[in-house]
Amino acid sequence: MKRHAPAGACAAALLASLVFAGCGGGGTSTTDTSLATNTDASWNWSLPVNFATPAVPADNPMSEEKFQLGRRLFYDTRLSGNGTQSCASCHFQNLAFTDGKAVSTGSTGQLTARSAMPIANSAYHPTLTWANPTLTSLEKQMEVPLYGTNPVELGINDGNKAIVLQRFQTDSDYTARFARAFPGEANPLNFTNIIKAIATFERGMLSGDAKYDRYQKGQTTLSAAEERGRSLFFGEKAECFHCHGSFNFNDQLRHAGSREVETPFHNTGLYNIDGKGAYPSPNRGVFEITGKAEDMGAFRAQSLRNVAVTAPYMHDGSLATLEEVLDFYAAGGRNLTTGPYSGDGRANPYKSDLISRIDLNAQEKADLIAFLKTLTDESLLTSSRFANPFQ
Predict the structure, then answer these.
(1) Taking a C-beta distance cutoff of 8 angstroms, is the pair 208, 124 a contact?
(2) Residue partners of 109: CB distance under 8 A and separation at least 6
(3) Which of 241, 193, 218 is nearest to 69 (CA)?
(4) What are the backbone dihedrals phi and psi of residue 226, each rounded to the nearest 5 degrees, phi first?
(5) Can you spell out the DSSP letters for 181-217?
(6) Distance, C-alpha 216 to centroid of its chain
């Protein structure tokens, strides 16, 4: 429950309804003019209640053929240098497309520095990954697991790129699927279109059928504990809504109607290993990109949708349970007294000034967790539309 933004009018609006704009503070502001609702006749968003229409790149319109092609590629282990791993190897449907690990393991056995992020509703993210403000599209982000060398994830490189592509070129089903997904192209089976297809699958993966969504539609009621938790979440005591107040329960949000988009990143006081604000390398947040001291430990606020099934938590999986997360925020940061990362994160000089001690008793913490569990979308976790097509 990261809390970073002025309250004021934003709080009142969010208490009434979760609508189109996140309520985040700080960060950069960009004008969004290159994105539109590009779809073909086969595509239907079937938007959940209160969800805005996603923005779609002009050069990669949505289509059902492309979505289904991307789904197959997402689950296909042939899309890795050594043929052992797929995107789905680190993104399990039953865990809301995370993997249940603190950090993930790439195709060559190398560990990633950060936890696998959930994929659903990534259509609404103006930046992708935990702490890279330069990755602003699903297409660009897809290049990281495909071609990245530090760490190696799918492990595709100049030495094996042709071999990987040939695996699909010799598969008649794939050649037919690429031709249908990219009509009019002479040679549609290429890495550019592989990336576009997977991005289309990810962009089309929407999650908005949780108990809380049904409550908003008047189709169910919240229990007494869930209602108390909802009031705390959107109230000025726990103040969770400051970073998790949009319909996607985060504070970075972009959609087809966006003009200016805020992209805040936050230091929550998780570490302070030198007493001067340092986070463990190479996990120092936006600082790794900008080198600016004020960006030390700054990470994107994660969406809380499906949060009950995406443990462990934080960018490095260092908090195991929702109870630990609530204790962390209630304490105003984390004080590690032993180990190589010892230090008092509560005193981190770069910590958000809205991260401070919150007086929550055991009942209030239980109520907040009860509310958070209403954000689990069982249909996302079980729907055949997002499932492995090879099983």
Answers:
(1) no
(2) none
(3) 193
(4) -65, -40
(5) HSTT-SS--SHHHHHHHHHHHHHT-----SHHHHHHT
(6) 23
Q: What is the pTM of this model?
A: 0.91
Cα separation of 98 and 309, whole Å?
Answer: 9
Amino acid at 150: N
For CA atoms 154, 160, 165, 167, give the dihedral sign.
Answer: negative
Span 65-85, average pLDDT: 98
- The band of 40, judged by pLDDT with boundaries at 50, 70 and 90, is confident
Q: What are phi and psi of 249, to 5 degrees?
A: 55, 45
Q: CA 184, CA 205: separation in Å to the nearest integer?
A: 26
> How large is the angle between the packed helices 191-203 and 172-181, nearest 10 degrees?
70
pLDDT band at residue 37 using 50, 70 and 90 as cut-offs: low
Residue 253 and residue 126 in contact, taking contact as beta carbons nearer than 8 Å: yes
- pLDDT, mean of residues 331-339: 97
Distance CA 194, CA 146 (A): 10
- The whole-angstrom separation of Cα 29 and Cα 353 is 20
Contacts with 374 (C-beta within 8 Å, 6 or more apart), sequence order: 210, 211, 212, 215, 222, 226, 230
249: nearest Cα among 55, 100, 50, 31: 50
15-29, 63-77, 100-114, 311-325: the lowest-pLDDT one = 15-29
User: Using an 8 Å Cβ cutoff, are 287 and 296 in contact?
Assistant: yes
Closest by Cα among 317, 280, 281 to 302? 317
CB 51 within 8 A of CB 366: no
Region 142-147 average pLDDT: 98
* Confidence band of 265 (pLDDT split at 50, 70, 90): very high
pLDDT at residue 39, rounded to an integer: 83
Residue 212 CA to residue 219 CA, distance in Å, equals 10
Distance CA 188, CA 292 (A): 42
Rounded Cα distance between 283 and 2, Å, is 18
**CB-based contacts of 62, cutoff 8 Å, min separation 6:** 38, 39, 40, 43, 56, 200, 203, 204
217 C-beta neighbours (distance < 10 Å), count: 12
CA distance 33 to 261: 11
